[in-house]
Amino acid sequence: MSEEELNKEPLTRAQFLWLGSLGSVMAAVLTIPPVVYLLSPSIKHQFGGRSDVPDGWVELGSVFEVPGGEPKVYRVEFPQDQTYDYEPDEGEIVEAVMVTWKDGQVPSVLGGGRRTLSPAETEELSHDLNVKSNACAHLGCPVRWFPDRHQFLCPCHGGIYDINGRVVGGPPPKNLWSYVFEVREDGAIYVKHEFIGGEPWVV
Amino acid sequence: MYPRMKARTKAALQPFADWLEERTSLISFGQKALYEPVPTRGRWLYTLGSATLFLITLQFLTGILLLFYYAPTTDHAWDSIYYTMHEAYFGRLIRGIHFWSANFLVAVIGLHMMRTFISGSYKAPRELNWLVGVLLIFIVAIMAFSGYALRWDQEGFYAWEVGIKIGSYSPVVGDWVSTFLLGGDTAGPATLSRVFAIHVWLLPAALAPLIGVHLFLLRLHGQFGSAFEYSERLAKLRKTRQVRELSEEEDVPQEELEKELEE
Question: Which of A46, A199, A203 sits opposite B176 (nearest CB)?
Fold first, then answer.
């Protein structure tokens, strides 16, 4: 082999750039569609703000039926779009919502029995009401009320919460998740599938 | 009687074996793969890898059979498993083998890893095989966990929920991990579809070639043992092969050749 041949560049800079660009384009064409395809729910949620549960109020029950000293547990069916049906909102996600009064004390406003509430009264009742998810703030297991202990206990890893949903023991890093809710003038409690201060996954 | 039958059978099958060998090298590959020297000490401990391979094969076979009845929908997942268990003939047996061999698999892999660690088999030049093994353990762990969720009963559902919650605590990508695994921001039909795809297609597709790499690297470097032990055993093995080949070529009994070599 001659010296000239040995010194010859096996690949010119232009060829290198051309091959590199072509390779990058081909790699992008081959990888981006499947990755985006797999991540589409995440992309829709993170960038588009889309939720599986459409924005809207669902009725729970009435403030007049929430007892003092223990929770009233409601089974709520939220419409869910995470199905492959043609009709929107055909699916549903069932959740348990636990409603208690602050420190278990029934507000004096409710003394007069069932009646139409004034705006000031609904605001006061909203302030005194805890509307909590039963999903433990640690790893999402369903918590349960133990009347003898007067606490919510998680069966998975021993999370303990008081009647207000405040964590008092075990591994949970925060209190039970609170639903966005409102009390209407007829005393009805309405909730949204939204949570104050974040999103508890999997609920 | 028996040696004559053996010789006749061998002679009858020889043309087919030669034909196959010429076209595929399958016979020599099989010999190379099967007749590998192993360390003399701790013989049984070196069967843990084979036991793992056997259990994984069992998982594949019983898993394929279970797929004939399983319905990956939130409405029918548990019902289809119930049907498999109570209505399909031998369904309880097939699912039982899948369930228990999965449990044993995790335990046997743990023992296999322990043996590898304690015997120092992860050291050069086998580091890469150790890493492949660690990857395989991760895949098997995720497979076991996702299989749990496929039942879609209370236990499986909440186990998966706890898993997703753990994933959601990942720094930076936590939200992405959760929504990816859920197929949205709530648990539902898309979640089960994803678990099914991961358990039945994605992970086995990753597992199978990695097992191939693991076995290839094992054969390349051999089982771990001292150099002295190896060189001695390999020399003996080569000598035996040479003598056998020579005895066939020269048509001299093998024992005579061995005696001559000793003298």
Answer: A46
